[in-house]
Amino acid sequence: MKMTLTLLAGVLLPLSLSAAPAAAQEPISPIRAAVVKSPAKVELGKKLYFDPRLSKSGFISCNSCHNLAMGGTDNLKTSIGDRWQQGPINSPTVLNSSLSLAQFWDGRAKDLKEQAGGPIANPGEMAFSHSLAVDVLRSIPQYRAEFRKVFGSDGVDIDRVTSAIAAFEETLVTPNARFDKWLKGDKKAISAQELAGYVLFRDSGCVACHNGEAVGGASFQKMGLIEPYQTRNPALGRAAVTGNDADRFNFKVPTLRNVELTYPYFHDGEAQTLEQAVDVMGRLQLGKRFTDDETAKIVAFLKTLTGDQPRVTLPVLPPSTNATVPPKPF
Asked: pTM, whole model, 2 decimals?
């Protein structure tokens, strides 16, 4: 069979790639819009997501480290916790996190519901306890009324709290990226340079780990396959969960959706720019040294993965009462 080729942005491409393909032909698939099953539960979860009273200081909320105005991250190498503690690891984006096989870099939480309870009770993050957080919510009549509306009774427990937060987080998907539009058939949605970057990204082997709707998040992989990754960060990756030394430095592959917004990169936040990240991943994971021109094309492609950001109206949180435990910020 003879394959027809076309020259595009300095890269020789199969003619089939110079036009828009069917999405099923590519290792990346378009993100589907969120389906809201319980608006009341999502609204309750949104309040809890933004409520800093779930922290000991009364200052830190889920949104502090997963800021929805900043790509679902805090754009810091490692996050700031209670009493200005330095976090141990880079905060992954909450956007499209429902598409991941597990939560946290080491996958220690099986889903968003399980993940939501972790930071509340972590002494280096929100530094509260589940029982104290629940006591705060129980002391507020408006919250009890909302729990009754969602769950059928006004009982408040950590299971219901994390279930509501997870329901809100499941709505934080980002469809309609320009690359998604190209996958769906709009051949003008991305430029020649961006398409050339995708071909490099795909044919160099990046899609072995970065694929599917989230362009990642579906597997754990070792950081440093070809060359060892040098870092001062003490995180062990999956080994901290499994106790198996073979899992050392195996981390969840991050999503590349909205990656231009979620800097700095890697579990230790050591790559400040996309160019740095592409260079390191090329050398350490693929054994390939991308030229500056190749890197620029791949970065151009990665920026086409930015989708519609969640349009979130900040909730008006119900006021505390005389029975509400006061915060201890200092």
From this structure: 0.93
